[in-house]
Amino acid sequence: MFGSSFNTASVLYSGFAHLTQTKTLLVSSVASKHRWMFKSPSPVQQAQLSRAREVAADARRRLRGRMEVLFVTPDYYTDLPKACMDGWGQRFIIVSPDGLALPCHAAHTLPGLHFDSVRDRPLDEIWRDSPGFRAFRGEDWMPEPCRSCERRAIDFGGCRCQAFHLTGNAAATDPTCHLSPDHGLIETARLEAAETPPAPFIYRTTRARVVG
User: Fold this and answer.
1) pLDDT averaged over the chain?
2) Which residues of 63-100 are buried (b: 16+ CB within 10 A; e: fewer)?
3) Which of 163, 164, 146 is nearest to 155 (CA)?
4) Which parts of the chain are beta strand (E)?
5) pTM
């Protein structure tokens, strides 16, 4: 690894990752700073999280001064959504290899949004005026309960991509929020992960491969 920052995070439990959702929910190995709500981790999950904290602490000690190690709490085990990318179009801009400028790495998966290429338009102009960046910037787009929530300027409604892939509506409140009308999707997924017997991982490769 040649970067100065290493981020360990659970992928969105949607799209391809949905195929192994029960497995990844069970073995998510990340450090949590949030309180657990609705359902406490099982003994197996708690042991895995404890081990993850030990590994994380060791990595931070070993790599201090050379690399920053970041951890992200699995969305399905928190009661409040994160400010994905610190808010849509608020702080970060990603330029894909083909020149497409995006507010997050998965933004191009949302239907109905147009994103410009740096080959066709200046980057500062894209940041200020691109319809794709303006779509979910700020608070004007927010539905309830986000619109009247005291955390609306903290988490900005959560992840737009996760909202779309779970509910079909990119403007919906992130279902990971306990105030979301779609939060039952998250609770159901947690219960299924706890009750479903261990299943093999399905890896996305050029040739289908299943690993137990």
Assistant:
1) 78
2) eeeebebebebbbbbbebbbbbbebbbeeebeeeeeeb
3) 146
4) 5-8, 68-71, 94-95, 101-102, 201-203, 209-211
5) 0.71
